Amino acid sequence: MNIWLTNVVLSFVIAALIAGLVIPKILLIAFRKNLFDEIDERKIHHGTVPRLGGLAFTPVIYFTLALLIGCNMVIGLPDILDRVSGNIIPLTFGFCALTLIYVTGIADDLIGIRYRAKFVIQIICAVMLVVGGLHLGNLDGFCGIYHIPMWLSYPLTVLIIVAIINAINLIDGIDGLASGLSSVALVFYGVWFYIIGHQFYSMISFATAGVLVPFFYYNVFGDPDRQKKIFMGDTGSLTIGLIICFLSLKLALFVPLTDPHLPNPLVLAFAPLIVPCFDVVRVYLYRIRHGRSP
Known about the structure:
Structural class: mainly alpha
């Protein structure tokens, strides 16, 4: 097994193990402090269920990546640092955006934030990704469009990012749906990043997928009567949505110079997001049809 494949596998395993240790502690704290998802006319679950599962996501991902970078350096394998430094601009802006939306999600889950404020913060995070170089300047023939001007590229990318973040947030209404679809997308991205030689992005993808594995177990199979069930909350859905945006845009910008037979990068990047994105349109139209704010 080569070193990069080892790093990718370890990123998944370490993230899954740490999240599996952290999530039960979050459950314990939530029940001791009475931090629950209150039942109302919009909720269909029964019993007291915390919605702080997303608290584990970002710290575990950061820890996993930092640990693997450090271990590689200690054993004399500096290639991983070269990969990171070669992508330092998108990574730094991406991690800043992730931290901002993570803190926003925590505040919303604990005390509540108006949707307008969340919307503004999502736009700020999207702008950070664009400043980091992740913007669509070429649609690769989608709808017959290739190169698009910069003045259109930037707002279009911001719109796409905000739409995807809200798509993941909106499908988080049934146990396992958001985490399940996101896991499929993340594994898909991880495999393709490894194939095209962007192994550090593959590590990010699999570390995020690893975090979702223990959460999925507690979310789908957990028993609320035994205080073993948890929701990801806005902290989880917003952070996972942003990570998926980050990875999808990076993959969309891949130019297959060496192999013209590789799939269209734009289709490759956004194919795993078809279901949540169409669901956003469905919810939007449903709310308008029934005279409610979209």
